[in-house]
Design brief:
Layout lengths: L1 H9 L5 H27 L2 E2 L5 H19 L12 H18 L13 H24 L13 E2 L10 H22 L22
Antiparallel strand pairs: 1-2
Amino acid sequence: MIGLAIGLLAWPRGARDELRRDVGLVLQAVADTVTATAAAVAAGCHGPGPLDLRLLHALIMAQTTYVQYQSEPRDGAPSGTDWQAALIAGHHALRGGRRLLAPHQLPGAAAPGPAAGAWIMRRAEKVARQYRLAGERFGVEPEPAEPSPGAPAPAGASSSVGVLPALFDTDAWLHGLAADLARIGPAPALRHRPPRHPARRGARRS
């Protein structure tokens, strides 16, 4: 049903503009997932990611639109956008974030501490900022997010247990997401720009 609805909306203009927007939504959702996941790791929390459903929904919509786009004939020069790289980045953000916050990933671990937590957040905010800028280039403005960490780590746990692996895993995850973003390439130009609404007749001029 979702594919049928996307096809009806995209026809006869084609799905590329819709795919452009859906990928922009994925990139913005990745940015919010990055900061929320890093905040949970810095706080020594675990549990489901607070923005899992938003990113998952964005990925489903983008993948459905991509299937529609692939079924259409090509006209003109290719855009240079690697659509699959964008979808892969979304999946890496979703699955990597879930693994970082899985309970078994932080067995008995306390929060990394203020210095390590601040370092994680600086790295995450840099990557998230890059994804937000990319999302804007695909025509989607960032939305305000309200991340909430998962369940806190057990009280009194030793900070030496599980903290360093969590730091290394988070850094590797962020590094991989930055590499994914570099593979996506430029955003394609809109083929059909939304019409401008003309001024209503009879409006008073001041």
